[in-house]
Amino acid sequence: MMDVTIQNFEAEVIEASMTTPVLVDFWAPWCGPCKSLGPVLEKVEAAYEGRFKLVKINSDQEQQLAQAFGIKSIPTCVLLKNGQPVDGFMGALPEGQVKQFLDKHLPAEGELQAQAAAQEAEEHLQAGDADSARAALEQALATNPGNDDARFDLVKLLIGLGELAEASALLAPAMARIPVPLRFEAQTQWLNALEFVTTDPRGEWELDQFDALIAQNKRDFEARFAKSRLLIAIGQWEAAMDELLEIIMRDKKWDNEAPRKTFVALLELMTPPKSKTQEATGKSAGGIELMGKAALQEDPHMAMISSYRRKLSMALN
């Protein structure tokens, strides 16, 4: 248990909740029920051995935080996960009811092990140790086959290592879902492009060979689509999207909408995950001002992605 103020709120609550759920206890020294609830919460925190983090906020001293969370009476407890309030309760609940409340939201032991393995994999990747990263991700999936983050990261790693068959096999369970999660559909389209350049003779062509065919017939969609796949394989994704747009503008339904699906896949793969610590409004989950207007300006990469989203929308309308 630790005391939190406006000065350390972002670090000890918002950022901490990205990895471990944080239970915030709003209390005051004059509050009788607060005095009975406090020891119960501390006892439960010790019993749960790191499954959640307990912090206390003196609502009298930290009125800005109390107002941001809409605290009307104390004690009030608010549980945050991934920077967002997910649930809460008011009053001095007995130990059993506190545990029931927490058990609805806290990850099971197996999930915690999988999360730890995924974090370990990320550290290995940053250190350039792909083999160790792969082992950690495989362990994460073995512990929890439903860990989509680990599956996505492992598929990405396998594709990067050129192990396309293994990546395809790992994608199969996700692709069997209805509906198929967009990020796994995106990886499948990426994988299709890489498999094309390794199995189709046109994968060895120079780009100007495709351009010569397209110059003779602007509607040679086979040549355009093959060129886009080669561009994807060599990492020129913007150029690939330009080529795909040319097909979409001329024939939206060609080849069962394969160009559109590939275009959407590239946008998904190029879009970084949203920051969990803050929304685009520049406020934390608790409504605390974080940054000035400069922080809200779209960076060049996101501006490029937004531009291609608009181009696709125009081509489809």
Structure report:
This protein has 14 helices and five strands. It has a five-stranded mixed sheet, sandwiched between helices. Helices cover 58% and strands 9% of the residues. Residues 275-297 have low confidence and may be disordered. The chain is of the alpha/beta class and 317 residues long. Strand 2 (22-27), helix 2 and strand 3 (53-58) form a beta-alpha-beta unit. The chain has helices spanning 9-15, 32-47, 63-68, 95-103, 109-126, 130-143, 148-160, 164-175, 182-199, 207-216, 221-233, 237-250, 254-270, 300-316, and strands spanning 2-3, 22-27, 53-58, 76-81, 84-90. The relative contact order is 0.09.
List the helices and strands and how they pair.
Layout: E1 2-3, H1 9-15, E2 22-27, H2 32-47, E3 53-58, H3 63-68, E4 76-81, E5 84-90, H4 95-103, H5 109-126, H6 130-143, H7 148-160, H8 164-175, H9 182-199, H10 207-216, H11 221-233, H12 237-250, H13 254-270, H14 300-316
Parallel strand pairs: 1-3, 2-3
Antiparallel strand pairs: 2-4, 4-5
Helix pairs in contact: 5-6, 6-7, 7-8, 7-9, 8-9, 9-11, 9-13, 10-11, 11-12, 12-13, 12-14, 13-14
Strand order of the largest sheet: 1-3-2-4-5
Span of the ends, CA to CA: 56 Å
- Fraction in helix: 55-70%
Mean pLDDT level: 87
Strand content: 5-15%
β-strand number: 5
Q: Write down the Rg.
A: 25 Å
Structural class: alpha/beta
- pLDDT < 50 stretches: 275-297
**What general form does the structure show?**
elongated
**H/E series, N to C?**
EHEHEHEEHHHHHHHHHHH
Largest sheet: 5 strands, mixed
Question: How many alpha or pi helices?
Answer: 14
